[in-house]
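Board notes (copied after class):
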Amino acid sequence: MLNNSTILITGGTGSFGKKFIQTVLKQYKPKKLIIYSRDELKQFEMQQELPDSKYGCLRYFIGDVRDFPRLRTAMEGVEIIIHTAALKQVPTAEYNPFEAVKTNVLGGQNVIDAAIQTGVKKVIALSTDKAAAPINLYGATKLCSDKLFVAANNFAGGHNIKFSVVRY
């Protein structure tokens, strides 16, 4: 399914995103692999590690899942989304609670809405074991996000799109 597909990974410069990209490049031949993140330095470093001369399918898109118009633009022509963008540090989420809500919950809803609007076929959202029985805000925001992605299958209407959540 990943061969000859256009794939967008939100949070693509994070630890999971980097490993996922390396795995895809080793095992598949995507048409395009779009790294969507707000971290310009990490994107630059990734470009140095994975040069265009060797990996011509890679595209880099500066953006934040909180920014719906930018996210929607990045999804044009995309078939598969791997959604890994999140505020993941428990102390950071506890100290900045609404920032965690804006990224993990509202950002997740932005991914859902933009994917439906742009004709994406498959969205896989990365979750965490901390969402299983949340005892902190991070787990609670990821549980909420998980529920949004699962419910999106019910309100996608006539759009040919599947939403899934996997725990990491």
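Comment from the instructor: The beta strands are 6-10, 32-37, 58-62, 80-83, 122-127, 162-167. The first helix runs from residue 15 to 27.
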